[in-house]
Design brief:
mainly alpha; 2 helices; 0% strand; flat
Length: 97
Amino acid sequence: MADETGSQNTPQGGTQPPAIDYGKIEDMVHKGTQQRESAILEGYFKQLGMSGEELQTAVQDFKTKRATQAKEKETSYQNAQQEIVRLKAQVLYCIVS
């Protein structure tokens, strides 16, 4: 709150709120999400009758497949962006000519 001179008053005790470490928060959320995901996958594969090494292999295969699909999707998006740039240049060339 500002006083009559326009300066800001600090909270009683003069302490500042702690700095927020957004990187740490992101890491915590990511770790929690990964743990929850693994638990869900393990539960699903257990329902299918898997256990032990078979279960762990199925979880890893799922995660690997998903990562591969994400990479392919990103590559496809980048290729599409490059094609858009190429076509725009081609259109501009036709307009100017």
